[in-house]
């Protein structure tokens, strides 16, 4: 890991990767300057990595609205990319900044205006460039327009992807303005000399990206899955039963899948994989083998001969010195492991390492990190017992232990001090050998609805601190997995989580810029009791937000939903190819429900697939996406579409009528072109409303299928409930999309799904199908974690099949969540709900 980068603040500029309306602009103003004195504008500049287009205006300095001095970046130029423009012509001033400096460091630039000598100078690092005789017009009032702007005749939307901080203005060596740009959020750029604040459109505040994890990607794969990471190329590998899925972060983030030419692989929950020695390996611990994937042929050289496992949630690393893969610890068959195993890539043999030194307590759910060569590793925390037996006093562990490959020995370094809620670690630590520190993700393993929290600690002492905000995480033993990686080129952390449910695994990828910001000091108490306060505080804040959102959604629902009689009462029945029947096999169901052909999916990620299986979602700009969703929602739910006036109100409320009409016409044409690729789907205005006409016999629309099920609850049966579960397992409705007009739809979907599950559950007896009712209760908890009816249903069903301890655990976990949200204990006791 490279050293942490200091001073993590500034303003990032959205560029050509978003539509013009969403690009960033910073508007700063100066008034009553002496028009004859020279002055200087200075600022720190850096470029944002992994973008396609680097072109446009960095700064337009406008004097008295009659002369512009511009700093532009032109990546089409063969030599010098930075240029100064005065008025209508290019000046002789042009220069470069080395790419490594430009992308990885802050670079100070100074633009000096000298009216007396009719001279402009630019200072960049040790370069100083000047030009005279350019007929500068002395001015008293200035606009400093960084990035995109809509100011009079100087407006532009061409912006390179850059970040900016510490904008200062000096006149005759006296500082007269200073905009640090160190805000967390908002549209105000605070000026600290004279309160001469500026304004920002579409801000990307860098400081917030060092504190708030950002969901980079969310997707679902069939069956079990394992993770591996290539740090050099910044690729995350998701190994599935039938294909290798690769999410590439470097350059342009992209997701691609490659089917195995060697056929399906048997995978086991809790298994491990790793990328090392420029190859991808899958560890078959129970049959003492390692599978190697050939990226050229798409083949695995080995597969499972059986699917039993005795080694889950172990830790692993690669040692370059002896070209071997090592594993430490793990869990299986009610036994915690303390073994160290070694697989030589040269001999292709496993061996059990006889280690020495300090005692290593058997454990799993520990964090492990290695130095650059892999000859020294650090293992921290976990859950286990001294004897290794799960039945004999298992507990959370908090020791930091170092393992040295050369002498095959463990050495205990210290125990971290924990006085709050117990926690374990995600699988990997990120080690910074230079400053002897580590980063790890912790979470309370005794909760299903949990959270991951990044911590930074020392390799020499027990102190640690919490950095960054939290990541939602559902934990259920081998059904869940979390890992932490560091991206050296992008200078950010990556957290990847897996959660398997209903024979599919949900993958979520989050990122956080380095160095991560510590959480607010007032949240922490001495010796990290703050972990508990963080959990409780998060629940309290979450409750407050939940109350506000629910009230707002109820109000919006009353104001914006059509009258009940206007809603289409009779919905086309589910056709034969969409109906689940009892005779179908699980594989047939999977193939049908997840075929990526002729489909529009709104649950989870928004995805559109053409008849030949090509996904066209990537061609939708943010504006086109919102336009499409507005028309689609009103078309599918109300069967009438949406008026032009309503579209203007939602999408172009800030435009004049003429401008809104022009914008609408252009984007409607683009949308029609994209929908034509789908076939059996087109945009019309035959009734005076914009409507997307869809042939549901040819195109699968999950939202339409959902409406078929919930619209008539009197016809609910087990097959329809199973079908509803398959629809929702992709994720929450439009989970990564937030529009104010969409809130009422989202709220209704959650309520209708929960009501449907509960209504069907109440129609059957616990004695008839307790296993299905347990699954149904879990589905309800996915949408409403403190649903009383679901808790009672699950407890009664578990008790009926003799799993009384699990029933009691369900009740206790519910009670904890209930108390965290409502601030008081649930009013009933465990025995009363079973009566």
TrEMBL record:
Gene3D superfamilies: Kelch-type beta propeller (2.120.10.80). Keywords: Membrane, Transmembrane, Transmembrane helix. Signal peptide: none annotated. This is Kelch motif-containing protein. GO terms for biological process: regulation of DNA-templated transcription. SUPFAM superfamilies: Galactose oxidase, central domain. InterPro entries: AfsR-DnrI-RedD_regulator, Gal_Oxase/kelch_b-propeller, Kelch-typ_b-propeller.
């Amino acid at each position: 890991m490279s050293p942490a980068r200091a001073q993590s603040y500034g303003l990032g500029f959205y560029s050509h990767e978003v539509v013009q309306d969403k690009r960033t602009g910073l508007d700063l103003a100066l008034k009553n300057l002496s028009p004859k004195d020279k002055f200087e504008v200075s600022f720190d500049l850096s470029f944002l990595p992994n973008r396609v287009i680097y072109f446009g205006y960095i700064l337009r300095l406008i004097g008295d609205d009659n002369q512009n001095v511009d700093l532009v970046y032109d990546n089409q130029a063969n030599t010098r990319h930075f240029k100064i423009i005065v008025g209508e012509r290019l000046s002789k001033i042009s220069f470069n900044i080395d790419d490594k400096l430009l992308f990885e460091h802050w670079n100070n630039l100074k633009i000096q205006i000298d009216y007396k000598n009719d001279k402009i100078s630019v200072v960049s690092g040790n370069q100083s460039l000047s030009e005279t005789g350019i007929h500068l017009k002395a001015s008293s009032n200035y606009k400093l327009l960084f990035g995109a702007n809509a100011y009079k005749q100087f407006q532009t939307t061409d912006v390179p992807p850059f970040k900016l901080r510490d904008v200062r203005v000096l006149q005759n060596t006296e500082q007269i303005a200073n905009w640090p740009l160190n805000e967390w959020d908002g549209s105000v750029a605070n000026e600290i000399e004279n309160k001469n604040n500026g304004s920002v459109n579409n801000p990307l505040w860098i400081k917030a990206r060092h504190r708030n994890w950002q969901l980079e990607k969310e997707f679902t794969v069939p069956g079990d899955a394992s993770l591996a990471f290539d740090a050099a190329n910044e690729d995350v590998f998701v190994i599935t039963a039938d294909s290798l899925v690769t999410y590439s972060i470097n350059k342009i983030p992209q997701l691609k899948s490659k089917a195995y030419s060697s056929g399906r692989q048997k995978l086991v929950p809790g298994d491990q994989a790793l990328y090392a020695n420029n190859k991808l390996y899958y560890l078959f611990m129970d049959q003492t083998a390692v599978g190697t994937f050939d990226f050229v042929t798409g083949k695995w050289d080995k597969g499972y001969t059986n699917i039993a496992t005795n080694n889950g949630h172990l830790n692993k690393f690669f040692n370059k010195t002896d070209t071997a893969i090592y594993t430490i610890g793990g869990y299986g068959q009610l036994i915690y492991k303390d073994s160290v195993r070694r697989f030589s890539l040269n001999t292709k043999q496993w061996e059990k390492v006889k280690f020495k030194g300090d005692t290593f307590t058997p454990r799993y759910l520990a964090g492990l990190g290695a130095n650059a060569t892999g000859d020294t590793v650090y293992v921290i925390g976990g859950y286990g017992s001294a004897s290794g037996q799960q039945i004999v006093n298992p507990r959370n562990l908090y020791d930091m232990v170092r393992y040295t490959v050369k002498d095959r020995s463990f050495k205990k370094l210290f125990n971290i001090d924990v006085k709050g809620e117990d926690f374990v670690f995600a699988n990997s630590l990120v080690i910074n050998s230079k400053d002897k520190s580590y980063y790890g993700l912790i979470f309370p393993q005794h909760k299903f609805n949990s959270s991951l929290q990044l911590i930074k600690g020392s390799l020499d002492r027990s102190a640690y601190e919490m950095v960054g905000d939290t990541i939602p995480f559902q934990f259920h033993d081998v059904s869940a997995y979390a890992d932490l990686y560091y991206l050296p080129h992008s200078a950010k952390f990556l957290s990847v989580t897996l959660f398997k449910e209903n024979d599919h695994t949900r993958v979520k990828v989050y990122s956080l810029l380095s160095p991560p910001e510590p959480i607010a000091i007032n949240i922490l108490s001495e010796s990290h009791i703050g972990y508990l306060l963080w959990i409780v505080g998060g629940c309290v804040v979450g409750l407050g937000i939940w109350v506000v959102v629910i009230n707002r959604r109820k109000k919006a629902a009353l104001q914006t939903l059509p009258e009940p009689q206007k809603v289409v009462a009779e919905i086309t029945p589910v056709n034969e190819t969409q109906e689940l029947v009892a005779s179908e096999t699980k594989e047939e169901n999977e193939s049908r429900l997840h075929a990526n052909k002729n489909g529009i999916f709104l649950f989870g990620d928004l995805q559109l697939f053409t008849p030949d299986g090509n996904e066209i979602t990537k061609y939708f700009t943010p504006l086109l996406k919102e336009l499409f969703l507005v028309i689609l929602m009103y078309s599918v739910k109300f069967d009438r579409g949406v008026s032009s006036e309503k579209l203007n109100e939602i999408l172009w409320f800030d435009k004049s009528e003429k401008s809104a009409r022009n914008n609408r016409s252009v984007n409607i044409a683009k949308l029609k072109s994209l929908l034509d690729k789908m076939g059996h789907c087109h945009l019309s205005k035959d009734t005076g409303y914009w409507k997307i006409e869809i042939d549901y016999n040819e195109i699968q629309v999950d939202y339409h299928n959902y409406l078929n099920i919930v619209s008539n609850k009197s016809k609910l049966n087990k097959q329809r409930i199973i079908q509803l579960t398959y629809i929702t397992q992709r994720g929450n409705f439009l989970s990564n999309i937030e529009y104010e007009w969409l809130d009422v739809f989202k709220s209704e979907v959650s309520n209708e799904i929960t009501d449907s599950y509960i209504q069907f559950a109440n129609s059957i007896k616990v004695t008839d199908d307790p296993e299905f009712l347990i699954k149904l209760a879990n589905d309800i908890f996915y949408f409403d974690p403190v649903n009383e009816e679901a808790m009672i249903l699950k407890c009664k069903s578990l008790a009926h099949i003799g799993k009384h301890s699990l029933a009691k655990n369900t009740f206790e976990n519910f009670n904890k969540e209930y108390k965290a949200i409502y601030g008081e204990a649930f009013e009933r006791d465990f025995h009363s709900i079973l009566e």
